[in-house]
Amino acid sequence: MNILITNDDGITAPGLKVLKDYLTNAGHAALVCAPDTERSAIGHAITLRMPVWAKSVSLNGRFFGYASSGTPADCVKLGILQLAPFKIDLVVSGINHGANLGTDVPYSGTVSGALEGAIMGYPSIAISDVSHKESTYETAAAFLVDFLKDFDPKSIPPFGALNINVPTVPLSELKGFKITKQSNRRYNDFYEKRQDPYGNDYFWLMGDVIEEQPSFESDYYAVMNKYVSITPLSVFMNDDKAFEQLRRQYPG
Description:
Blueprint: E1 2-6, H1 14-25, E2 29-35, E3 54-59, E4 62-68, H2 72-83, E5 90-97, H3 104-107, H4 109-119, E6 124-129, H5 137-150, E7 160-166, E8 177-179, E9 186-195, E10 201-210, H6 219-224, E11 228-234, H7 240-249
Parallel strand pairs: 1-2, 1-5, 2-4, 5-6, 6-7, 8-11
Antiparallel strand pairs: 3-4, 7-11, 9-10
Helix pairs in contact: 1-5, 2-4
């Protein structure tokens, strides 16, 4: 397949290189277009009213990909519309350094890169290694390569993407994968007040993970039990239950 790769950790992120190496070694044609610096938690921002730059990047004397001044969503647009020398079959965003579970999803630049592909009509996958401390990108990359042997990306519904989270364990310790739903895993956010050397106040966002007992069908339950979670997402955020309730309350 012809695959466009992006991420939100930036062009120099190790997860990006591992992903490209594994996909290329598996026989896929992989084009990288990724942010020139880290754009984590930027969500689905796109660049308006100013240009987006793209610079060719080489690694060990060989072309590696394009570093863009834009966001992950910008990179997908630019890669598909301007830079790709072939027709794209699949967009893959990752491998992210850290989980994208539960309420991480709307914040995540990684997931938004995949959802931008979905908006543009391309099958898309976001993939993350769940640990923010230690990473086993090889496990995530090997899982994806193996998954794509049997999975047809064209089976992803229009305007949809898959959000894959891989436990940080050796490949041999994975128990398999589960099709999951978003959990309600979220954060208890707070700001820590500090002062700079000139006496000016500034605030650093902090947070603790709220880990309620997760549903057996949830992404969080899967990865905590050494399963890869595969969560189907859509760019449409309709709440069907609330829609029906409100329509009964306000008919006509």
